[in-house]
């Protein structure tokens, strides 16, 4: 009995010693609280640094994305502008090509226009000669000026052509409406101051300034014919109407009838 108790005590003592030894070993292998806190703080710092790098990369990514979008928008705008400019260039090139063709044909056109202008002047001269003598002297001088202008090197062909067209327009105006003007009429070698009156090209008359004599132009005979005194008053009224000195009204004036064609 005594031996058993002793053995039990010895075993208990050994177990206690082993427990103490294991406790000391565990204590020796377990980190301290301060070390754990330090490692935890370092981990937090590492996480914060990593998060900072992530945030920096994210901000850089956003900036790069904004720059990319700006570049894309600028590229699209430049592409639209370049297409617009290209269309303008194509149109200008087409215009230049057209102008070049016109320039190449100027000499040929000029060779055809110059003879045409001479023919127009000749036709105008013949017309003035055969027409009733309305402002005959000024019309004849206009034709002569046109002939002189054609030989001048300081006047362009376009200006010469414009002057000829202007002369034709003046001739057309003589055939419109009632008109009157003052001048001199040669009757039997005597110069008489008169008022000329013409209704277009239908009739041309002249009346002495004292209103006592009147003449009618006979374009077939190419001379002046004295008219009956009954036309003096109507002619005076017609002259006044043409000068806007009285209201327009119907007046009776002599007219040479057109001859029937054979």
From TrEMBL:
Q: Which key words are in the record?
A: Coiled coil, Signal
A Pfam short name = DUF3450
Secretion signal, residue range per the UniProt entry? 1-26
**Which residues fall in a coiled-coil region?**
82-109
Q: Which InterPro entries match?
A: UCP028069
Protein name as annotated: DUF3450 domain-containing protein
The protein's organism comes out as: Aliidiomarina taiwanensis
